[in-house]
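B., you asked whether I could sanity-check this one before it goes into the benchmark set. Here's the sequence:
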Amino acid sequence: MKYTRIILAAILGLALLTGCAANNVTDAGGVPMDIKSFSFHHTASNAEECFRFELSMEEDGVRLYAEELFISGRVAEATLEAAQLDRLCELAGELGVAKWDGFDKASKRGSDGSTFTLNITLTDGSTVYAHGSNRFPDNYSELYSAVQEMYKKLMEQYGIYNEGADAP
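And here's what the prediction gave me:
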């Protein structure tokens, strides 16, 4: 009887672990999210921090759309290798971004203009949507820093200036 309980507990534990890995979203974080599209929009009082960054899985690879807002009008559009989206999947899982779904908060105090909107669609069709104005979910600064770093690198590599925009 004791061995039966141990075996049943082991099977139950294995089933629970396999279930989390199958949908690639976990409350505990750490398991990559199975992202089909990722859209992040950030504005702040410092115009240099204002950008839009989107990656989406397409048949021919990962589509990039990135845009500097309010400064130069620089835009980057390219098709990338899946590794770019894979890194976001890992990071979103590590930071528990799935728990952000439904976050929609604004500071009741004065605003310095910092806002964000995050919209993620997973391959199973489910979504994660979060928005904040001077209020941010747990681990926001880590995601923001990583996305901003990725954005800057890809803008350096693929960025072009819109017609009529002043290049620095």
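One thing to flag: The chain has three helices and eight strands. Otherwise nothing jumped out at me.
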